[in-house]
Amino acid sequence: MEQPFDLTLIWAGIIGFGIMMYVLMDGFDLGQGILFPFAPDEHTRDVMMNSVAPVWDGNETWLVLGGAGLLAAFPLVYAVFLPALYIGVFLLLAGLIFRGVAFEFRFKAKTSKYLWNWAFAGGSIVAAFAQGAVVGAYIQGFKTENFVYVGGALDWLTPFTVMTGAGLVAGYALLGSTWLIMKSEGEVQAWAYKLTPRLLAGVLFVFAVVSIYTPYVDPLVKSRWFDSLSLIWALPVLAMYCAFIIFRSVQKRDEGLPFVATMGLFAFSYLGLLASKWPYIVPPNYTIYDAASAPESQLFLLLGFLFVIPIVLAYTAWTYWVFRGKVKSTGYH
User: Fold this and answer.
1) What is 7-320's CATH number?
2) Rounded to two decimals, what is the model's pTM?
3) Band of residue 1 on the pLDDT scale cut at 50, 70, 90
């Protein structure tokens, strides 16, 4: 029976939305961990951790939703990505687990707090780097034959993926510093203001390199961007406008605008990457339709997701509303 709507396209939208929500929501609390070693004192670290304490575990709900949906709707992605990225995925999960444990133990530690500080920072940096390296591997593409990965276990680790990994670490740190500007005050906020322009410069450097590199690893991408002028060019222009807003708003000592503009920078960069590779979900060979599961499976799971996603969105919005306002080392006020 022919479906009246394109389930594969709907699922691609759901997965893309889930990944974007995870990057934006979990990015700023990973950013707190990345910035932990550079914090001037323990009071600053207390403020940083308290700023994300009510929301960090809820933010990771989007990773679970995105991963479960990807497995159900596009099983070929798992069949290729896991053999290709075993080590990267292991580092990602290990980092998230380790920082979660450190997060809880640091609140209770007395003499060993410094160890949990390093554990929290290390787990955050490793998780962010692994995510960025996976993005770089996606841009490079995968060696496949007959829907099977035929490359090596370390093919994903190249100078380019190391750079994208480091770039995402800087990007999450930028999200973290602008979040801290919005949620803190006094000396902590002043430190975040000082740090933000340096992080923005690092992110823009990686943005430029990826933008130059991507069209030359895939003829389709090069054709899409350079054969004719199209609306796709609005995405990098909007991303650069967001970067300008970040810089100007920090100069003017705005509190909320730097974080909002940083989220915009991430969103437009992400959309630019998707526009470059669309509709290939396992580049350079397989599209979303090649990777899709049976329509019956997609429809059955779609009914469940259409029920769950509004609940998660409502819970997220309620949590951020309840814990709005500034943060001190002793909590919100």
Assistant:
1) 1.20.1630.10
2) 0.90
3) very low
Q: Is 148 helix (H, G, I), strand (E, B) or coil?
A: strand
328: enclosing H helix or E strand: strand 327-328
* Beta carbons within 8 Å of 320's beta carbon, 6+ residues apart: 55
- Single-letter amino acid, residue 114: Y
The structure tokens 């829907």 sit at: 147
Residue closest to 293 by CA, chosen among 70, 129, 115: 70
For residue range 188-244, what is the model confidence (pLDDT) as tens digits?
889 999 999 999 999 999 888 888 887 777 777 777 777 766 778 888 889 999 999
Cα distances (angstroms) measured from residue 83 to each of 134, 292, 328: 13, 18, 45
- What are the φ and ψ backbone dihedral angles of 331, each rounded to 5 degrees? 135, -165
Give the other-Cβ count within 10 Å of 28's Cβ.
Answer: 28
Q: For residues 172 and 199, give the distance between their C-alpha atoms in angstroms, rounded to a whole number.
A: 9
Domain residue ranges in the chain: 7-320
Using a 10 angstrom Cβ sphere, with 0-12 exposed, 13-18 middle and 19 or more buried, the burial of residue 293 is: middle
